[in-house]
Design brief:
0% strand; mainly alpha
């Protein structure tokens, strides 16, 4: 993405946010369209079930709409505010569940594989990695997901988590060391 396109999208988003703060439902709908896939993907990776991820995604946007008047433009992008809400929704979701290790075998495929064996192997590996990530602590898990699943830059992660960029890098390093240990212990 070139810088002019990125700046244009940022200014368009800022205008939509301002209109949404003024209770413009159409503007909020456009913000929803811009961010729903990213929020859904983030939540799905944390809960592993399509139905729960869809419900939680809708709850995130409902809460965002209800609280939009409290949104304050800061150095953090609007997506960081939405990610904070989604993170809290996931925490609440697990708080209400007795089985905190809830992992469903249902995995979204990234694309069609040429052979069923490849699809099965890829799904198994993705599920194995996902289980290992879910064994990490809260901050470590969140940093790994935001960095490698969502593709966030370190500055964006720091903004979402309200931490310094250097702290995020340290958390990621520790998480990757733990993840490697978990995966090595679980080798088949």
């Amino acid at each position: 993405m070139n810088q002019n396109h990125s700046e244009s999208r940022t200014s368009d988003e800022a205008m939509l946010v301002q209109r949404a703060v003024e209770h413009d439902a159409e503007a909020f709908g456009k913000l929803y369209d811009m961010h729903v896939r990213r929020i859904y993907k983030h939540i799905y990776y944390r809960v592993g079930n399509e139905a729960d991820a869809e419900d939680l995604t809708q709850q995130v946007f409902l809460k965002a709409w209800q609280a939009i008047h409290r949104y304050k433009k800061t150095t953090s992008p609007f997506i960081a505010w939405l990610m904070t809400i989604s993170h809290n929704q996931v925490i609440d979701f697990y708080r209400t569940r007795k089985d905190k290790a809830y992992i469903e075998a249902e995995i979204l495929a990234d694309g069609p594989a040429s052979r069923p064996e490849q699809t099965t192997e890829a799904n198994f590996e993705q599920q194995h990695l996902r289980r290992a990530i879910l064994r990490l602590g809260g901050d470590e898990q969140q940093v790994v997901i935001l960095r490698f699943i969502e593709g966030f830059e370190f500055a964006e992660i720091a903004s979402v988590m309200k931490k310094k960029e250097g702290n995020v890098r340290v958390i990621l390093h520790r998480a990757l060391v733990k993840l490697r240990d978990i995966l090595e212990k679980e080798k088949i």
